[in-house]
Amino acid sequence: MIRQDFNQGWTYKKAGEAESIAVTLPHDAQITEKRESDGAGGGGHGYFPGGVYEYEKDFFVPEEWKDKEIAILFEGIYRNTKIYVNGTEAGSHKYGYTPFIITLNACLAYGQDNYIKVVADNSKLPNSRWYTGGGIYRPVHLLMGNRTHIPWQGVKITTLSYQTAKILVETKTAGMKNPAEENILVEIMRDGNVLVTGRGAHAEIEVPNGKLWDDETPYLYECRVTLSDEAGEQDQVTETFGIRQVEWSNKGLFINGKETLLRGGCVHHDNGILGAACYEKSEERRVRIMKEVGFNAIRSSHNPASEAMLRACDKYGMYIMDETFDMWYNRKNPYDYGGDFEECWEEDTRAMVERDYNHPSVIMYSIGNEVAEPYEQKGIDVGRKQIDLIHSMDTSRAVTCGVNLMIIGQAAKGKGIYQDGKSSAGSGDKEEKEGSNASLAFNIMASFVGTGMNKGGNSARVDALTTPFVDSLDIAGYNYGSGRYPMEGTKHPERIIFGSETFPQDICKNWEMVKKYPYLIGDFMWTSWDYLGEAGIGAWSYSGGMPFNRPYPWLLAGAGVIDILGVPDASCRYAATVWGKIDRPVIGVKPVNHPGVRPSKSVWRGTNAMESWSWRGCKGNKAEVEVYGDAAYAELLLNGRKIGRKKLKAYKAVFKTKYAPGVLKAVLYDENGRELSRQSLVSASGTSSIAAVPEETTVMAEDIAYVNVMMTGENGIVESNDDHRLTVEVENGELLAFGSANPCTREQYHTGCFTTYYGRALAIVRAGKSGTVKIRVSGEGLEEKTAEIDIQN
User: Fold this and answer.
1) Largest CB tally within 10 Å, which of 176, 511, 581, 633?
2) Which homologous superfamily does the CATH classification assign to the domain defined by 246-569?
3) PANTHER family under this entry (predicted)?
């Protein structure tokens, strides 16, 4: 079926409001709402309110469509959605993260305008442990085909062999019984050139001189399938794929026969200052940045990733573990998917696996995150049903789960950590009940137990309790279970494991074990990219308070080693150093602009150091400097004066000095005192001014573009201690969002006004149809700056 863009010409309003506004999808209805200290979702949702969101669109249906198959594909709507076409309910969907299609033929009026209404009900909070967004936040497509056609997702491509590049192309058809081989033409292409052809619904094809897909060489092909009958061509579908085979055993994970270690990070679905709105450019940018700083794997936490993210992972060579659910039949919050799980899990799991099948980046499916249900037989059975379903659909990938052994152990004692205290946990009861966000209980526990959680699954009792479920998985993911890594080879010699969720500060000792134990295939830190909601869970705060569930106006988790603007912190560089991806020293400086104040620290963040030596007005303040490197010794110099030389332990040395503007330099030495490499941080000099730097100088018409907005010195260096409230205006385009990475703010991203944070902010604009986009940035007492982006038609 032909897939057409259906994102234009919509209007939106919140139920009960009189006026609608014009919107282009994707659209997050929640991100523009006013946050309140008593917001129903609490800190988990970032203190945003919920609501019922209504979208409408008129579209003309030609008379000739009578003989066509017509459907609409929604990639994702949050949540409890109902679709109406010309006043008739055409379909519904409950889960907020899976794609679904609505067939329109029975509802359409041909030769005239038609009317579609989409109602998304996100009014009952809390229904998640993080910020979800609301409304039609992923793209929408119109599907059209002849009566004889290839259904949506009707072409599956499987790698049969990588030694000789051989694939199987399976094609489903509709409207044609038992198609002959000559009815289906399969063409394998690269850059529009046909390399080889095959025929039939089950075409085995050897690709000449086939190049393989992996994280280092993400080589992609196109598969074009044409369906014909005696009347001629009826349909044509093109799928992108890579020749890639995944194998696993207690000897390791192998991609095309090559042992592979996963340098992973967990990623929530929101796009920072855009909220939940999912744009192709945004997902691609996130994956590209993660790849550039050393990651080679993503865990989609804790729901199916967007299709745009999968395409980006295919393009850049990023492995992905796609995850189904954060909860099963026990709710973690009063109104979450746990009330729908038993009715909907099979449909939603199928939707994820069918969509993911042709994406070479997807190497594992996860059936859940920190679910407590496997403490009882019902939970074990439910897990096995999910595993069996996925195996029946796809045997080429492993099935895993983010298992928190301690949580299952606690649940068996009747001490459920994720438990809505007033709901009937385990009953599947759909009755609406009051309760609080269950992240709080877990975060309180984690904050006090700290990294001791890593040993929470070490006991013989917990091992015996969890073994029936864990051994039903192809590969076992352990959340905060690194204490078990060394013993698994003896206790469970056939088991394959990885760290599905770990503390970033543990990366050194975890990675040493990954390299040591063949059955331990990787590590996924929480988190690689910061996110909205779970307010303050990972933040270091200079204003006091407990390091979890911080009060309004806290907004961000503050847990990412890359902030919501896409800027890596020092701990991100530390991980890259441990992984062997950086061959120079890294200098991380803890903020020096809070003299005498001891920050409250989070267990999910080992340091708040950043790569900056620009702290205006802080001369003489105490400074703590972390130097990372793969060497024997590190030396630190300030303005040519030696601060000290120290032995690197676990790739790190810590120095204390006093801040003075100038040049901070780190030098690495080997055991014999021979210099290996050096790196410097330079202070901003002179008067600060606005800098607006687009990440692209040319974009396609109506595409989006990112513009980095900074306060810089006369030497172009970002000044970390001279923040200003700035205003952004756009000519020949639309400002989609403007904001900073400040985790605690009352400002909103859609207003066009925001204060920089450590000298940085970000503007995201949608280009017009032709000409030049102009982005003007101004602030009180500052010279206005203009950036331009050319539009390519």
Assistant:
1) 511
2) Glycosidases (3.20.20.80)
3) BETA-GALACTOSIDASE, BETA-MANNOSIDASE
